[in-house]
Specification:
CATH topology: Neuraminidase
Radius of gyration: 20 Å
Helix content: under 10%
Strand content: 35-45%
Distance between the termini: 13 Å
Strand order of the largest sheet: 1-24-23-22
Number of helices: 4
Length: 392
Amino acid sequence: MKTHYPRRFLLLFLSCILGLSWPGSAESMRHLSIYEKQDAYCAWPAMVRAANGDLLVAFTRSEEHLGPNGEILLSRSTNNGQTWLPPAIVHDSPLDDRESGLTLLSDGRLLMHLRTTRWTAEQYLTLPDNAYESATLGRWMLYVNQPAYREAAKFDGAWHAVSEDNGHTWSTPTPGKDSIHGGLQLEDGSILVASYRDDSGNIGIYRGDSAQGEFIRVAMVESPQPDRIRFGEPHILQLDSGRILMMIRATAIPYDDQSPLCHLWLSWSDDNGQTWAEAVRTPLWGFPPHLLQLEDGRVLCTYGYRRSPFGQRAAISPDGIHWSLEDEIIIRDDAPNKDLGYPVSIELSPGRILTVYYQPNVPAGTVQRMHPPDPLRRKPGILGTIWQLPPE
């Protein structure tokens, strides 16, 4: 891949002489808050543009990362991301609802991929000693041992809900497949999703004929180092050429989200998801990924960065196959800790990107205790950044 250093140097030189904004600089970026609440932990956004043009962001609101009773909210922008309406609760089972991928279907309907978890006292007892204050864990264990919570075990698992009115109302959920950012609809009308929770550290590719019908596994992409990394939280994108790309999070074994092993891995399919190339490691470090094909044909990948300086990053590829750190862009590097990430992006207009993610909305340099987390800290909110693509 050709180097971009001379062109970038020239642009930087011109920006100094003419007062122009450098595409990757803070001056060219506008940060915004989509939703925050002082006593709420908000995380894991998904985003889609509805058929009527509205931008929708779904996310989880809970007490803490591993709290027992999260709910799914949806916030809406009717002016291309400039301002956001207060969110509405769109799914709240008796258990912990903590995932809400979104897929736009060709007929304008929206498919939401939900994941609900039933916690047990035994699971909380196995957490590291400094995970949470003992009083917090004690309260959660009492909560999950309540008869109503235990009897709601039938809600545990993956679900699908459908909206026929651009996300204002949703159908009763039916069993489905988890998909962290959503799947895609193929030319024949079938729906393809990449899932990971049922496949033991690998990625399962599932296909269904309808949004709320049965999904059958048609392929699997395996971790090439099953004793060192687990695959998870994939995202798939179909290019204009028909090729389907999949970028995959790698989690170190034992768990360490700052490990050198946490590079993004890439696979692709040229037969509508029936077979996949063996996964290859990219130079991009971070997770989890979100893919977007840009108006100019390039492919954007955004991901969280849980090493200092903590924040959100992006990279651009000419074809979705070849990736280079020379093309990495720092969107944020001012988060107080590694409790952040899951960025998702959309092109508001040619070259103008909105990236939505979660992290605490605090001034750069703020210190927040995380082991165990300070209950009075500024908890993460759903934030966004509008920024300009660098030139080709």
